[in-house]
Amino acid sequence: MFLIFSLSCSTKKNTFTRRVYHNLTAHYNAYFNGKEALKEGTIELGKISKDDFTKILPVFQLGTKTDAQSVYNYLDRSLEKGSIVVQRHSIFIKGKEYIKWIDDAYLLIGQSYFYKQEYDLAMQTCNYILNRFKKSDLKNEVIILKSLINVQQDRLDEAEALLVSIENKFEKKKSTRTAEKLYPMALSNVLLKQERYEQAIENLNASIKLNKKKRIRTRLHFILAQAYQRTGQLPKSNENFKKVIKLNPIYDMEFAAKMNLAQNYDVTSGDSKDIKKLLSKMLRDDKNKEYLDQIYYVIADINLKENDMESAVENLKKSARLSVSNNKQKARSYLKLADLYFAEPLYKPAQVYYDSCVQFLPKDYPNYILIENKKNTLNELVKNINAVDLQDSLQKLARMPVGERNKKIDEVIEQIRKDEERKRQEEMERQQNLALAMQNQNNMQTTGSWYFYNPTSMNFGYTEFVRKWGKRPYEDLWRLSDKTFTEIQFQDITEESDSTDNKKDSTKINLKDRNYYISQLPLTPEAIEKSNLDIAEALYNIGYIYKESLLDNDKSVEAFNKLEKRYPESIHILPAYYNLFQIYISTDNTPKADYYKNLILTKYPDSDYAKIIQDPEYYVKLEEKQNRYEKYYKETYMLYQEGNYNIVINNADSVIKTLKDKKLVPKFELLKALAIGKTQPTETFEKTLKDIVSKYGGTEPAGKAQEYLDALSRIKNMSSGENVNITDTVKTETKEIYKFDPGAFHFYIAVLEMKNTSINEVKIAYSDFNMKFFSTQKYTINTLFLDDKHEVLNVARFNNKNEALDYLNAVQNNQGLVKILENASYRHFVISAANYPLFYQNKDVDKYLKFFNKYYKIQQK
After folding, report:
1. Are the beta carbons of 347 and 381 closer than 8 angstroms?
2. 278 vs 428: CA distance, rounded Å
């Protein structure tokens, strides 16, 4: 009997009993368990993954890489079981497979890799199935999986082409039922990514008809509603959002459906009372406490549709204030506020909200770069507006009679004293409340309820807070309803004085000393002149920003005219005239344009601006001349590299005498200095470098010259009077020792300070981590001493940079492992096989981390 059983297990020969045995055991043992593991993993992934309902949902919910790593135990099990089916049950003889579950097992492996987001391995598996099992009834499922992989790798055209290639196969019943259901979903997936919503709608409707599972139908109805919304078909969008609600989805989706129904409100369709009543009811519902920010945002949207700007702004501010944990919603609320103020245009409040928005806005948000540029532009504008206001206020205060001025300053000091006293009282109350809370905690041992878990205590505390302070926003300095002490803004003075080169020790500044404020005022002719120069420069900057960045000609003209009226002799007057000339040309105001044209030609006939007006090709010719010098610089640099140092010095001298270009002259000076370093004593080289630093401070060549000077000071002792080639030594010293090779084998490295923890404890933690999340990879863990205080733990090996970084990210997102590592003051990174020996020999972690942060683009914790 045992002999018969053993023979039936063999896969070497193709017999009826062996086929029956292997088909039976492959299907109902390993394959069944693997399929169940995959199903459990995808369901768990759906629970873990968080959808962004502000965007069109993906048809297939894959989550982030971190989400996928959380279900690796399921996916690795399905991989393992699929591999067992192939290894133990395949009967492949003379190019033919006799066990029908082998192609299913390979597909299971490909799907597991897909959900693990290891797309290259998933694609390789798909290609292998198509090549080996040419007549398999799973062929269409495999092609659909290839399409999904291409979508995830942003190859949308290839994804669509694959689906088109099997479009007619379903009509001839050449496919499985699963493939028939997946096909319109996969095609919708591609079309939605391409924003081809009308075509996607057709396929989404087909998908809903073919799929009976409630979870899938609910998601498809939500996506269909979004697609109708994008195409302006609001009644059909509402119909599908209502179907979502009836299907009783998870609360996040139900809430999002209700919000979208409200946003779909058509102002021309009638009264909005019902929709506002629904939203008001939702505001009072305890289930919606964490969603209040989104509800107020939708109410504001309705306000805007009804042209109620005041209510919209108020509700957007509530939305932003209540977005405690939902940074995306906070960013959306700030962005809408910023856009509203910008459209008015009210640039100061717009700047505040754009600045706040960018702090919370994800980098992949549509038009993120444009929003950030707008923020930077407004920051610069407001900085200059504040500079004018500050200097005008200081001059006004300086012109006051001494008694009146002192009275004004004393008011500021008195306000500071009151604020300090109030804060002292608040701190005393805080300490008393804390003691009371601790006492309450002790008294409530019988109920087992800590203060922050006890609703009665929490409600009492909240009521007391609101009674005393009112409803305050979640922000710094929340106690101050007006965070500006006076119109003079002395805090700006403090910031400005702190940023100067001659910065004073902040501990010596006494904000309750009248003399401190007096010292900031322009009381001398020199100080008044400096203040006026600052105002003139700021006014010019304001005009230029309005004209070039904000395209607001009216405000630009206003700023330039103010400059012309207040400071007609300023160095900024000529460029202001030219900008006014350009504005009036662009707005077809010929008389005004002619006025500024004649003004420039009469008062500044030799200026570049006059030459441009007379010859529009002037700058083109100037650029050609510039290009000739650039070419000459490159030729001179080539001479330097060839060792013609004396010719380099002569060329540089001839150009430096005639060229006025502020960029090229320092570059020629540095090149000349390097040639001197090759041919003349070190002292001469050093002096030349110091001259460059002195004359051209702040330029790139001056920075390079300083690097050479720093290196010279370090290697002087090495020379011992010998004729050392200094420039070569400096070049060698600053050269990068590591090489970036993303395709090479990589190691994961953790450098650990071992005085507070055990290396064995850390190794065990990594081993457990690998068993749980990377059980199929069989990574090895080794340790060695880096120095007398640090040990290195390495995990090997990864096929390329991306695999290694995935592992590092998984470590960073595992709280249990990170908690153990924090005791060891860890620093971790990935490193290529070629760079690892260099790192260990060099033993400079900071130096390698500079290289790592430059090339590997990952934020260190």
Report:
1. yes
2. 44
Could you please report the per-residue DSSP string of 475-501?
STTTT-S-----TT-HHHHHHHHHTST
Please report the pLDDT score of residue 856 as a whole number: 86
Give the DSSP H/E element, type plus range, for residue 38.
Answer: helix 32-48
**CA–CA separation, 554 and 180 (whole Å):** 62
Q: Are 368 and 332 in contact (CB under 8 A)?
A: no
- Spatial neighbors of 682 by CB under 8 A, at least 6 apart, are 712, 716, 719, 724, 726
Region 633-655 average pLDDT: 85
Count other Cβ atoms within 10 Å, centred on residue 439.
11
Cβ atoms of residues 754 and 826 within 8 Å: no
Question: Which has the higher per-residue pLDDT, 339 or 17?
Answer: 339
SS3 content of the chain, % helix, strand, coil (to 5): 70, 5, 25
DSSP 716-758: HHHHTTS---HHHHHHHHTS------TTS-EEEEEEEEGGGS-
Residue with tokens 């690795």: 76
The torsion defined by the Cα of 640, 644, 650 and 656, in degrees rounded to 10, comes to 0
* 13 phi/psi in degrees, rounded to 5: -125, 155
What integer pLDDT is reported at residue 479 of this predicted model? 42
Residue 446 has pLDDT above 50, yes or no: no
Cβ-Cβ contacts under 8 Å for 416 (sequence gap 6 or more): 485, 511, 512
Bridge partners, 780 (sequence order): 796
User: Using N-to-C axis directions, what is the helix angle for 327-343 and 292-305, rounded to 10°?
Assistant: 20
The overall average pLDDT reported for the chain is: 81
Q: Which two tokens stand for residue 765?
A: 């933690």
Q: Where are the alpha helices (DSSP H) in 400-470?
A: 402-443, 455-469
The token pair that represents 36 in the structure block: 């169940």
* H or E, element range at 17: helix 16-25
Structure tokens at 10: 């063999």
Number of Cα atoms under 13 Å in the Cβ half of residue 470? 6
Q: How far is the C-alpha of 709 from the C-alpha of 702, rounded, in Å?
A: 10
Evaluate if residue 458 carries a pLDDT over 50: no
Cα gap 103→129, rounded to integer Å: 7
Q: How far apart are CA 787 and CA 137, in angstroms?
A: 61
Max Cα-Cα span within the chain: 118
For residue 835 the two structure tokens come to 């760079």
Note the pTM of the prediction, 2 decimals: 0.60
Closest to 769 (Cα-Cα) out of 809, 816, 806, 803: 816
> Residues with Cβ < 8 Å from 582, sequence gap 6 or more?
547
Angle, nearest 10°, between helix axes 292-305 and 309-322? 170
* End-to-end Cα, the chain, rounded Å: 63
Pick from 826, 822, 847, 824: nearest CA to 835: 847
Which of 23-27, 59-63, 230-234, 281-285 is predicted least confidently? 23-27
The CA distances from residue 23 to 5, 84, 91, 273, 726, in Å, are 15, 13, 10, 65, 77
Q: E strands of 814-860, at which residues?
A: 827-832
What's 820's DSSP letter?
Answer: H
Taking residue 297's Cβ as centre, other Cβ atoms within 10 Å add up to 25
- pLDDT, residue 761, reads 79
Residue-wise pLDDT for 416-429, tens only, equals 899 888 888 887 87
For residue 220, pLDDT beyond 80: yes
Distance (Å) of CA 723 to CA 613, 686, 728, 829: 57, 14, 12, 42
Q: What is the pLDDT of residues 539-567, one digit of tens each?
A: 999 999 999 888 999 999 999 999 999 99
* Burial of 736 per CB tally in 10 Å (0-12, 13-18, 19+): exposed
Buried b / exposed e over 257-272, threshold 16 CB at 10 Å, is bbbbbbbbbeeeeeeb
**784, β-bridge pairs:** 792
CA separation for the pair 658, 377 (Å, rounded): 37
How far is the CA of 735 from the CAs of 66, 493, 729, 730, 731, in angstroms? 37, 43, 10, 9, 6
